[in-house]
Design a protein that fits this description.
404 residues, alpha+beta, Methane Monooxygenase Hydroxylase, Chain G, domain 1, 27% strand
């Protein structure tokens, strides 16, 4: 590979110029352009892509004009730009840009440092570098897993105030490959915006690129929503099983409760601990309430079943009222005149058949009335109530989170 000759005295002359001119001169205009090459939420071994940061691999291009680097300053008769190595950066002025929300940063050095420095005859400088960043991004999990996140890449000047240095976005500065694919998110088109950073030392220029991340819900529909819907519907099968089949109904109730509980615990381990209720918490908690309530319904049905059995047993026993009345009549009667029982009251014999003095002893009937709220009727009512309530909950839940 042949390399064209570049005048070696340009570096020495630039160093001399720096020592005599740069001390009191400031660059007041900087045009930044950012090309996003790869962007994805940062993965973690335990909680996957649910942490409050993301990783981005980007090419950052900065343009500015430094008249001290114009070719006429060095008496060079050249009309094309110089492409120099990154070593020249130690000898020329470069903006003190830093990433305000950076956690970690890496510069690519394979196979050589991925840095481009190009100086044009008029003193225009192009400084391009490939960087990998891990940036902070405050996630809002209120609507998880139907949430949309907004993350940004914020760039500021560290030492120069707005009186000395300003960052200005160029036209259409944010670019990304058309084939960019994120496993769990859909990346919206980024926007370039301005901001100001005020500290006790002054006000500094600030720009940032903002990106929208729309979480794909298809995975969670298959992983959370469909399985829990199936479990809830299985718990409703109890209402079609004979309430006398205790082992079957208890087994279904216990299994469904444990399944929903395990699903909720696993989801909580995958998400960071937050102080507010997430959309997935509303779903799992409501499903747990449905399966627990269906199990409690069997407890009520079993109680009604036992009460009905006790009532039938009591109705089958003979009542002692008639025997008591016969014993009373035999002790009260003294004589029998012409086949008619009589009672002695002084000297007069009064026939007991006299309607005027005859008193009938009532016979009490303790046969209980059967209540309409038995176990079978409760199950029939629960079939309609539970399925209708779960359908209404689904309609309200999906409308509230998807349409909002």
């Amino acid at each position: 590979m042949e390399k064209k000759d570049v005048p070696c005295h340009i570096t020495a002359t630039a160093t001399l110029t720096l020592s005599t001119v740069y001390e009191d001169t400031r660059i007041v205009l900087l045009r930044d352009t950012v090309r996003v090459r790869h962007m994805q939420p940062h993965t973690h071994a335990k909680i996957a892509s649910y942490v409050d940061d993301f990783s981005v691999d980007l090419i950052l291009r900065q343009y500015w004009n430094d008249p001290r680097l114009a070719f006429k300053t060095f008496n060079l008769n050249r009309t094309t730009a110089f492409t120099l190595s990154d070593k020249i950066l130690k000898d020329i002025w470069v903006p003190d840009l830093f990433f305000a929300n950076e956690k970690h940063a890496w510069r690519h050095d394979i196979t050589t440092p991925n840095v481009l420095v190009r100086i044009s005859p008029s003193g225009d400088v192009l400084y391009s570098q490939r960087i990998k960043l891990k940036l902070a991004c405050l996630y809002d999990f209120l609507k998880f897993p139907m949430d949309n996140q907004t993350c940004k890449i914020e760039m500021r000047s560290y030492a120069y105030t707005t009186d000395e240095l300003n960052f200005i976005w160029s036209t259409d500065p944010i670019q990304r490959p058309h084939d960019l694919y994120l496993p769990e998110f859909t990346l919206k088109r980024g926007s370039s915006k301005y901001c100001k950073s005020k500290t006790v030392t002054g006000e500094y220029t600030c720009i940032y690129a903002e990106f929208g991340l729309i979480r794909d819900i298809q995975f969670y529909i298959l992983d959370i929503y469909i399985p829990t819907i199936v479990v809830v519907l299985i718990s409703f099968i109890n209402f079609w099983i004979d309430p006398r089949a205790t082992p079957a109904r208890v087994s279904i109730g216990v299994i469904t409760v444990l399944t929903i509980s395990t699903q909720g615990v696993n989801m909580q381990h995958r998400l960071p601990r937050v102080s507010y209720i997430k959309a997935v918490d509303v779903w799992l908690t409501t499903c747990l309430i449905f399966v627990v309530t269906s199990m409690l319904e069997y407890a009520v049905a079993n109680m009604l079943l036992q009460r009905t059995a006790r009532q039938k047993e009591k109705a089958a026993r003979p009542e002692p009222n008639s025997n008591i009345l016969k014993a009373f009549q035999s002790s009260a009667c003294e004589k029998n005149v012409n086949g008619v029982p009589t009672a002695i009251l002084g000297a007069e014999i009064i026939p007991l058949t006299s309607k005027k003095h005859h008193v009938d002893m009532p016979t009490l009937d303790f046969t209980p009335l059967e209540s309409k709220w038995n176990a079978d009727n409760l199950d029939r009512a629960s079939r309609v109530i539970f399925t209708s309530a779960f359908a209404i909950f689904n309609a309200v839940y999906w409308c509230a989170y998807l349409l909002n």
